[in-house]
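Hi D.,

Good news: the full-assembly prediction came through. Inputs first.
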Amino acid sequence: MKASKILSIAWDNLKQRKLRTSLTTLGVVIGITTIIAIASLGEGFRLEVRQRMEQGFELDVLIVFPGSFTAGLTGGFSQTDVENITKISNITAVTPLITIPTAELYNMTDVKLGAFTVGAVNFTEMKEILPLRFRLLNGTFPQSEENQSIVLGYKASVVNGTIVAGVGDNVSLIVKSSSEYVVYTNNFTVSGVLEKGGTSGITNFDYWSFIPLDTALNMSLINDNPTPYQIILVKVSDPQYAESVAKEIENLFPPYSITVFVPSALMRQVDNILNIVQMFLVAIGSISLLVAGVGIMNIMTVAVMERTREIGILKAIGAKSRTVLGMFLAEAVLVGIIGGFIGAFTGYGLSYGLAQILSNFMQPQRQETVLQAPETQRMQISPVFSPEWTIVAFVFAIIVCIIFGLYPARKAAKLNPVEALRYE
Amino acid sequence: MTIILGVKDVKKSYRMGKVLVPALRGVSFEVEEGELVTIFGPSGSGKSTLLHLIGCLDRPDEGEILIDGANVLKMSDDELAELRLKKIGFVFQFFNLLPRLTALKNVQLPLTIAGASEGEALEKAEEMLRLVGLEARMNHKPFELSGGEQQRVAIARALINNPKIVLADEPTGNLDTKTGWEIVQLMKELNEKKGQTFVIVTHDPHVAETADRIIHLKDGLVEGIKEAPKRNKP
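Then the structure:
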């Protein structure tokens, strides 16, 4: 018997029992809807998280810290260390950073600026390494790497909505010891204010202020330190080299004496975790499809019993066992195809609906936090239409239908024609 | 004359719970091509069992059944199905038409199973239905047809693949005497016109008498074979 004919007979049989067919198909629709919705939402969530991470970290910038979680985060880097790192291939720029601990900034009316960290940097190199983040809102970068200029982060310049120090203003830098004893004080002129970074992540400079590197190196509290640098920023020519370069940097130092933060590795890790979570959710969603499969098996077993006599007749007039098997399997496959098709549509429909609801739940919290600006907390998940997932779900639906349809179909195929004809 | 059907010392038992009930206890006979043979006997004599064996719906426990020279016992299930499809036509007591299909579709079915094209099957089915005198009721479903009409559809279905043997299991058993007689006459007519071999199982002596030969079956054994002299062979 021709396959097309078997399919058309199966289709007729399904049409004959519309309610039953619809209910059986509904099971598959629910299963596929769940899988597609979870998969497309998960994919959307992943993209959103990835985008977040890209906003928070430059993927081509490595951050090198002294010490390690194992040995303690202490110490610093010498100029030789910086020069050694520069020799590694696939690196486009290296710049050291000095962070001045316990530094406070005041304007001329003794109002404390909103700076939490005062850093000393080479402005030219910083601009090269972090061109998107290290941008001026107004003013200019210091003309020389050694003068009494200071660049303020946006939140250092603006406290509670009022500008406490602007371009041209003088500010005083006070460094205190742990016993509140002033160990250093000097005046600086604000030459520029950085653009609002706004995003979370390590390289958000909103609460930083920067003075020229050489100025800091000449300070009495730093100039006798052989390892003055607390951070080295390394820019690689392409994010794909990030990890190999990180490895090479680690090899320059004794084990556990430094830490290289590799944003792309972190991101890959997060991506892997999200992947696992997504798979897990899809697996749970798949259970509903298995339930639908059991429904198919149930209905088909009943159908085989009801149609025992019909099967007997078909066999008596010369239908082979595999023809009978094919007829019943074709019904299961058709249910899978129709259910999968409808389920794909309803799945994407559901995921758009859920995305709306979820996005509303993730409203920004109305509080100022140090690391996260409120405007960055709003998450907008949009489901991702993935042809791969659609095909996978569709094929899965058909496979489940075949597997669960196989038992009743085999039962039908194996019927003894004499007994089947006698069946009332 | 060629022997189209050979039955040699066929035995068949059924298991009823723990008891083995013998239905056929060594039946032998032969049927020539073009004959119309009736298997006659009271109920429980093993007629239907014998017909199922000849029709390849079941296999004997012992003995040989030869259809058109081929030994049924040695065939696989698929080969038996093929044999039923190509060489055997069935007519049942309860017509056994598929209730959801029209007369025309019911008649087409064996050709469809054999893989014929829709057009060919349709043309052939119309021809068969005309042959049994049902050209006016082709598109009716079984429940819209009388018993006699349903049996005619069944006969048309049995004939569509041009089988060597047509087997009928109590074809008049579910019909009134007049209609039953018409059906028997139709089969006789087809037998004469198309030269196909007919084997009819019946417990009705009137039906049995229409045959060329009557095989009497009793308690699973052939009691006697009677030639019917009435028929004038051409």
